[in-house]
Specification:
With 306 residues, this protein is an alpha/beta fold. It has twelve helices and 17 strands. The strands form five sheets. The chain has an eight-stranded parallel beta barrel, surrounded by four helices. It has a three-stranded antiparallel sheet with strand order 3-4-5. It is globular.
Length: 306
């Protein structure tokens, strides 16, 4: 059985580092308000483990121009030093605009009131890889019942945003499901995160699939917090009792085949959510292979005008 996203994040030893400025093509894209459709490489995680170069060739062959990583550890991306991985992407015509790297308690030295070298290297390598966003896709379980502790941690989100800003990047947060089915002081954790992070320093990457089984509805949240969601994980969901994703009765499927109404969500996000980066992620595939699935997903987005 495929390892769940949550187990993957808990077990992965993730960090990042480097020291270059934001590549000149990214500001150009932003100035022209271009919408970007990319692929979260966790969608093809098993293929990336076995044959990363061949998998990236297939991803580029489908038509993808932008990717988001979920495979950084020991200062390497999928086993490659940052300069080597950057060259592989460049040669394939791919740009890695963002990446998932968990910001955890080990990355802050409270005695020094500063980030550890491990997190500083994480941000540095992200810049060298050409990223625009360094996204943390997890919140330590100890913080989900401690209001004051959570507020202190969200202040570190803002501080990480200040660090990323020095490199021409932005820090970001990506939701799962606990942000919507857990409350502190009668507030959903997601509301606390949105209300206590500086939008100029911390981008929100809304995962429209992860939240669904916990009651999160993307359009309602966009209307509550317009302009706050620079990135989106684009998913569709079907009912399922299979263990592996959020374990809440749903699993992802190819875009347009599920129950979310994805086209309406991304249209609202594009119009009202401040969303420029639409990152496809599919974690379950039913009878298809991962590569077949992300190929169908790419075509669906293009058919919808993205």
């Amino acid at each position: 059985m495929l390892k769940s996203r949550r187990k993957f994040l808990k077990e992965s030893s993730l960090a990042i580092s480097g020291a270059t400025l934001l590549p000149n093509w990214l500001p150009h894209l932003l100035k022209n308000n271009e919408r970007i459709t990319g692929l979260q490489l966790y969608s093809v995680r098993d293929d990336m483990k076995v044959a990363p170069l061949d998998t990236l060739r297939k991803v580029a062959g489908i038509g993808y121009k932008y990717v988001e990583h979920a495979g950084y550890s020991n200062r390497k991306f999928y086993g490659y030093p940052v300069t080597d991985f950057r060259k592989i992407l460049d040669d394939l015509g791919l740009r890695m605009i963002s990446g998932h790297t968990v910001l955890g308690p080990k990355h802050w030295d409270d005695a020094k009131k500063d980030f550890t070298d491990e997190w500083k290297n994480t941000v540095d390598d992200a810049a060298k890889a050409g990223q625009k966003f360094v996204i943390s896709p997890w919140l330590d379980e100890s913080l989900r019942k401690d209001y004051d502790g959570l507020l202190k941690w969200l202040d570190l989100f803002n501080k990480s945003g200040e660090l990323c800003k020095k490199y021409g990047m932005k820090f970001g947060y990506h939701n799962h499901n606990f942000e919507f089915n857990s409350e502190i002081n009668n507030q959903k954790i997601y509301d606390i995160i949105l209300e206590h992070t500086d939008p100029t320093l911390v981008a929100q990457q809304m995962d429209i699939g992860n939240m669904y089984g916990a009651g999160g509805r993307a359009i309602e949240i966009i209307r509550k917090y317009p302009g706050r969601f620079e990135l989106m994980h684009v998913k569709d969901e079907i009912k399922s009792n299979v263990k592996g994703e959020m374990d809440d009765g749903y699993e992802s499927t190819v875009l347009g085949k599920g129950i979310l109404g994805v086209k309406e969500i991304i249209d609202v996000a594009n119009r009202d959510g401040g969303t420029s980066y639409f990152i496809i992620e599919q974690e379950s595939y039913q009878t298809l292979t991962p590569i077949e699935s992300v190929g169908i997903d790419f075509k669906a987005m293009k058919d919808w005008g993205y």
